[in-house]
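Quick one: structure for this chain?
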Amino acid sequence: VREIIGSKFPNIKGLEFANFKNQLDYLQNKYSIIKAEDLIEYAINKKTSLPKNPCYLTFDDGYKDHIEYVLPELKKRKIQGSFFPASKPIINHDLLNTNAIQFILASCENLEKLIKELNTKCIEYGVSEDEINKLWLSIDDRDRFDNRSVTYVKRMLQRELPEEIRSKVTDMLFEKYVGVSQKDFSIDLYLSKEEVSQLVSEGMYVGSHSHSHYWMNEESLESQKKEIELSLVFLDKIGAPTKDWIMCYPNGAYNDDTLSILRKKKCVVGLTCNVGHGLLKRHKLLEL
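Got it. Here's what it folds into:
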């Protein structure tokens, strides 16, 4: 959520602030905006029901936009939002891989040229042309967000390449297309610890989005446990609740190990990216 047209990155995928306000107008007119505490109390049986047509507002990844644009608008309307920052970018000023890719794409004027550069680097690092072609052909053109070319770049740099190669190629492309250091960029992009604490003090809810924003379903049990524990340490330090709390899965990804860890850590709601109606069945609230 930001003012995009006329900004330094006019091609970034985001929500114009004016459109955000229009969305809130619609949601407040058609739905009952609920607080995180309402959902938590329902999950632990302190509430028997939620209002008719409940709407729960969430904001992921901990962007500066949330303190500059979202918070003032929510306060003005006297409604609560729930914010889910990954803790590592805030603590270490590391740029998340997914954001590096977004800004590479937003800064690139010739997507075909970018893909050629990406493929050339992949071949240099030992990826065969057959593997590249198979991946290209495997991409579904019916993606609800991106065309085949954008999806290809994202999949290669997020998941398909080995992590070491992904990191090197992403670093090279970010330096070329965005032209600033990732650390400086992250400081401008993400909230500070003080700003996350401000969200809590202003009556907003802050929950877990893991530590490093990994695809949890691809991590080992121990790695997932560490990710969640580090996130909870961060939440405790900024004054957010760590008992009867809410987890928002990075990239919507989780598995049975994730659910097992969360139950042991007293998490009561887990937010997915699954498309469809949110069914408020208490035994399924870790997969909402």
